[in-house]
Amino acid sequence: MTSLAFAQGAAGESPAVLGSLLALARPWRVRLALVVVLVLAAAALELVPPLIIRTIVDDHLTVGQPDGLLTLAFLYLSAAGGVQAVTFLYNYLAATVAQGVLSNLRVSLFAHLQRLPTSYFDRVPMGDVISRCTSDIDTLDTVFSTNVSLLVANLVRLVTISIAMVALSVPLSLIALLVAPPLGIVTSFLQVRVRQAERENRLAVGAINARLQENLRSTEVIRAFGREPEFVAGFRQVLSRGLAASNRSSFFSSLYTPITAILAAVAVAALLWAGTQQALAPFGISLGTLTAFLLLIQRFFQPITALGEEWQTVQGAMAGAERILGTLALRPDETPPGSPATDGTGQPRIRLSGVEFGYAEGQPVLHGISLDVKQGEHVALVGRTGAGKTSVLHLLAGLYRPWAGTVSVAGRNPAELHEAERCNVLGVVPQVVHLFSGTVFENLTLTDTSVQEAAVYAAAHIAGADAFIRGLPQGFLTQLSGSGGGVGTHLSAGQQQLLALARALVHKPAVLLFDEATAAIDSASDAAFRAALRESVLPPGCAVLTVAHRLSTALETDRIIVLDKGRIIEEGPPSELAANGGHFAALLELEAAGWDWRTSP
């Protein structure tokens, strides 16, 4: 029967999305095949009660024959009970498959996000990324865990009931077919609008999560300036867009059920009217046949109405799936294994040659940067805010790729270092320290079980972190709350930075990159760490590049490179630069006079 327009709309709306979701279910194909068999069995059993009713009416009630009614009643009850038993089985099996698929999808999405270029996180708000991993997958969970089996079963019921109706009476089927065109038109009209509204709703949810993440991380600033009402108003404004989209979706979705109910009533009325007309007498349509057909037409509209009631949820799931699969389709930051990193014997451990780079097209940050750092050398990058110092470290850490020129660390392109060798080549301490929920030891090793305890203790000693760590309640086994807060010991900014320094030293890397690595610790700890670098890290041949905002740190390095507006303007030993009256000497004078040279024009 052509009134399967709703089912066709469900299957044809996003074939690529549905195909991708089905591909994720391949590991459970045997269980899915069993679900299909059970769904077909349930659909077949559901046809038995109307046929039994037909037999009861034609062979017993109309002729006054009570014999055999008890047997038919038992068969009716058995068929109805069999439908419910089989329905339970396929619902349970489908739910277990759905949870397995969604579990794999969550892991795949998280793993893929880890491989995406850093520039992706520059463009997409973190709250929106989190929304794709949580609420978007939750929309699939809502459908797949409880409704997917019902959705499939209802589609199968539409097919089997249509076949039974045609087999029972072609003329009555043709009469019922009159409601197919309006049903198809209504379905096409509403499904497009519900789908668009749900897409807007998923985008709005992403924006809401982004705003939440941004504002909740800034609670201290908001309270300090007394701007709570303004930020609440801003959140309400973001929320209103999602509310409007959700209301539109609910409006169009709510229209479907009453419209289908009216069309079902029209079909039943037309069949009742036709059944009283002599024009159908030549077709041999008995009272039992008409009764069974009426039961079938009512059963035919039941799954259509059920599909309509779930349509908003299904469309929300499809919109969420589009966002998830769109993220999975993004090209990851490829890091082929290649050849092992070389030790750079006879070559600089760090090299940038003619590097051009920026974060946005047409807005370069670095202009033709070239620099070398040899084994056992400690070089400081100095310059005002925005000079490009952190960008140099981003390139050397392999977080971004240059627009032009080459970048190498220990003889390799850092963007192509394999995960297994990265820790042995690079140790990085970024501006913002990130700790994770877990023990101090786990934070220092990042849960790498191959790291020896002795290496962890040695790194903590060099960084100057061992003293405060051993003073914690359980020492290296003390649980930390992590950067996101929560249960565990909270560390000061200085303590967190000492842990970040120790983390970078654990694997004894060939290159260390420090971005204001000691900005949060006191001068004594800073001096002790610099001494430890000279005694324990540099002699074995490690190359160190430091972004120095303390000129005292820069003065103790082997060489200083001064950046200004993305260009190298001075380079040389600290004593030489301090004596020649150039740019670095001017910065020393500003600092001695109490000026903040980092932001002064």
Give an overview in words:
The protein is an alpha/beta fold and 601 residues long. Helix content is 62%, strand content 10%. It has helices spanning 5-12, 15-24, 29-46, 48-61, 69-115, 118-123, 126-133, 135-146, 148-168, 170-176, 180-216, 219-224, 228-275, 287-328, 389-396, 419-425, 440-445, 453-463, 466-470, 493-505, 523-537, 551-555, 574-579, 583-592; strands at 350-360, 363-373, 378-382, 404-409, 426-429, 438-439, 479-480, 511-515, 543-547, 559-564, 567-572. Strand 10 (559-564) and strand 11 (567-572) form a beta hairpin.
How many structural domains in the coordinates? 2
- Mind summarizing the main beta sheet? 6 strands, mixed
N/C terminus separation: 78 Å
Give the helix tally.
24
Helix content: 55-70%
Number of strands: 11
Q: Rounded to an integer, what's the Rg over CA atoms?
A: 35 Å
> Could you please say which CATH topology of the largest domain applies here?
ABC transporter transmembrane region fold
Classified in CATH, the superfamily of the largest domain is ABC transporter type 1, transmembrane domain
Q: Can you list the strand order of the major beta sheet?
A: 5-8-9-3-10-11
Topology:
Blueprint: H1 5-12, H2 15-24, H3 29-46, H4 48-61, H5 69-115, H6 118-123, H7 126-133, H8 135-146, H9 148-168, H10 170-176, H11 180-216, H12 219-224, H13 228-275, H14 287-328, E1 350-360, E2 363-373, E3 378-382, H15 389-396, E4 404-409, H16 419-425, E5 426-429, E6 438-439, H17 440-445, H18 453-463, H19 466-470, E7 479-480, H20 493-505, E8 511-515, H21 523-537, E9 543-547, H22 551-555, E10 559-564, E11 567-572, H23 574-579, H24 583-592
Helix pairs in contact: 2-14, 3-5, 3-9, 4-5, 4-14, 5-8, 7-11, 8-14, 9-10, 9-14, 11-13, 11-14, 13-14, 18-20
